[in-house]
């Protein structure tokens, strides 16, 4: 259980922060940037939820919780030492990826195939979901970069990759099942 009775600690005033294993690192290190971007995504997703109803709202709430799991996973390096933590270390698991894939498949079954690229927009929810998609892609790029120098839990990377796809398909659902998608017209303003 997390207990936060004091919000500021002053321990980061010198430009360092603590990782999940207690190690202190610069606030601009790749790991911190990756999980910080996941946190940014969660905040953007909170804005999207303001426009969501029923099934999509419930799915977005599940994803927000997953994003906290993902941040917890990314903030703890050295997976080989998880057993030494003295408590169960929270890591992303394949079942979280599987759920996203099943939801993508179910939403995509309602949609006509794309015959054009689409522009981010349409309904307020769709526009916000497209923003979520782009922030998810940035979080994925940063996590991939992190994985070039440090161990990263494979389901964490896979989850981020699927998540941007989920947001894309959900944005189409939010645009009246794709009927009001804003289509790209190549060279329209030449």
Describe the structure.
GO terms for molecular function: ATP binding; corrinoid adenosyltransferase activity. With 190 residues, the chain is mostly helical. 53% of the residues lie in helices and 5% in strands. It has 5 helices and 4 strands, in the order ββαααβααβ. Strand 1 and strand 2 form a beta hairpin. Helix 3 runs parallel beside helix 5 and helix 4 packs antiparallel against helix 5. The mean pLDDT is 93.
CATH level-1 class:
Mainly Alpha
Looking at CATH, the homologous superfamily is Cobalamin adenosyltransferase-like
**Helix count from the secondary structure assignment:** 5
Identify the strand order in the major beta sheet.
Answer: 1-2
Mean pLDDT: 93
- The CATH topology is given as Hypothetical Protein Ta1238, Chain: A
Based on DSSP secondary structure assignment, what is the total number of beta strands?
Answer: 4
Assembly form of the protein: single chain
The largest pleated sheet is described as: 2 strands, antiparallel
| Number of domain modules | 1
Enzyme class: transferase
InterPro entries: CblAdoTrfase-like, CblAdoTrfase-like_sf, PduO-typ
GO cellular component, one term: cytoplasm
EC number: 2.5.1.17
In short:
The chain is about 55% helix and about 5% strand.
Short key terms for the protein model shown above:
ATP-binding, transferase, PduO-typ, mainly alpha, CblAdoTrfase-like, two-stranded antiparallel sheet, single chain, Hypothetical Protein Ta1238, Chain: A, 190 residues, two-stranded antiparallel ribbon
